[in-house]
Amino acid sequence: MISANWPFQPNHFPFYYGWVVLGVSTLGILCSFPGQTIGLAVFTDSLMEALDLNRTEISLAYLIGTVGSSFLLSRAGRYFDIWGARVMLPTTSILLAISIIFVSFVDKINSILGASSLVSFGLITLGYFSARLFGQGVLTNCSRNVLLLWFERKRGLVVGIRMLFVTFGFSIAPMLIGGSIAVWGWRETLWISAGLSGICFFLLSILFVRDTPESCGLKMDGIESSDCDEITQVATCKTLKQAKNSPVFWIYSFSLSMSALFGTALVFHVISIFNEAGRETSEALGYFFPAAIFATSTNFLASYMSDRIPLKPFLVIMVTAMCLGAIGFIYLERNWGYWMLISGFGVSSGLWSLLGNLAFVRFFGTTHLGEISGFSSSINVLASAIGPAVFSLGYDFFGTYAVAAKICLIVLILLLALAIFVRQTEPLHRT
């Protein structure tokens, strides 16, 4: 393992080194963009043309690759618990870069192997699998988790700060990538993305990431030894098996997954959904900006408050907001439905980011955080993969997206009841 004092000693910094980790954590999530849904979606039309695949085939390849990657996230989380972020982050950034470079050459490899549709389908499926595994999966989870090990009393605050930069970065990245494709081409743009992840972030992470404050002779939150008596921590770190036996784990995991399923389906079919409701394509594309305002505002406010109150109220509000968003979805042709969709899904998206970061470290501790959060992430990724297919099949069978939305609403109401009535005791108490 790399010494915590190489190439410099973090405990000699004039300020708490956790703030440096916050910066690297934020950049890590931003550098996962090439493996995120929205990052890969920008290249869909270019890949369809290069591989001579139709939209259904490319969507199926994406589904298979995403579902396949979801089954490995818990194991990857276990490696994070064993090896730490200083090994996992630079390693994963290189693997993501290799995956993106592979995607950039799938058409060339396909030509060498005979240029059959079956081969091209298999190649892009493999590319999607690796990009999703190392991008949205491992790099994102490791970048999230390392920050949680450096803060306890200020976890909500630092997660909120990180979310502001990530939301802004993800909102402008599609425009930057689209412009790059127009100027240099899709293949060259993928190379640029791979370079940012595989070279720039590799160097940043190996130089500046440290696994824990204790490994650097520091204390969590940067407190002085004389302040230790002011903090009371009653925490029992749970294993993944113990977490699975807790109803709290499943309530949070399924609630987060329903948000991922519904939200991804909406993004994937947004133009078709709005057109069905009699709305213009411009309205569909204009949905994202006000929703992002709701999400960012909610996340920052809730992140600040979460350092002072339990998470249960945020879970109840998130599921309630999803229920309202589902009702707005069903009545999208009406003006109040449009704004209910925006506000409901915007608020739930902001709280999803908060709960996805804080829930498992609060309830189950830090020792097995990677494995536990990785297993929950695998459920989320699986849900996000099948969401578009569920709504597409609903439209094919019933001629409307509303049926799938109504089924989701029923599930959300059941989750809301569980969120309200199931006892949630957080082992961590701050004084």
Structure notes:
The chain has two domains: 10-226, MFS general substrate transporter like domains (Growth Hormone, Chain: A); 240-421, Growth Hormone, Chain: A, CATH 1.20.1250. The protein is 75% helix and 0% strand. It is built from 19 helices and no strands. It has helices at residues 18-31, 37-41, 44-51, 55-70, 73-83, 85-104, 106-112, 117-148, 155-184, 186-208, 240-244, 247-268, 270-276, 281-286, 288-306, 312-330, 335-364, 369-398, 402-421. Helix 1 (18-31) packs parallel to helix 9 and helix 5 (73-83) packs across helix 8. The longest helix has 32 residues, at 117-148.
The gist of it:
The chain is mainly alpha-helical.
Indicate the proportion of strand residues: under 5%
Q: In angstroms, what separates the terminal alpha carbons?
A: 35 Å
Provide the gyration radius in Å.
22 Å
Give unreliable regions as ranges: 228-234
Percent helix among the residues? over 70%
Task: Name the CATH class of the largest domain.
Answer: Mainly Alpha
Question: What is the fold-level CATH name, i.e. the topology of the largest domain?
Answer: Growth Hormone, Chain: A
The ordered string of helix (H) and strand (E) elements is: HHHHHHHHHHHHHHHHHHH
Question: What multimeric state do the chains show?
Answer: single chain
List the helices and strands and how they pair.
Blueprint (H helix, E strand, L loop, with lengths): L17 H14 L5 H5 L2 H8 L3 H16 L2 H11 L1 H20 L1 H7 L4 H32 L6 H30 L1 H23 L31 H5 L2 H22 L1 H7 L4 H6 L1 H19 L5 H19 L4 H30 L4 H30 L3 H20 L10
Helix pairs in contact: 1-8, 1-9, 1-10, 4-8, 4-18, 5-6, 5-8, 5-18, 6-8, 6-10, 7-8, 8-18, 9-10, 9-15, 9-17, 12-17, 12-18, 12-19, 15-17, 16-17, 16-19, 18-19
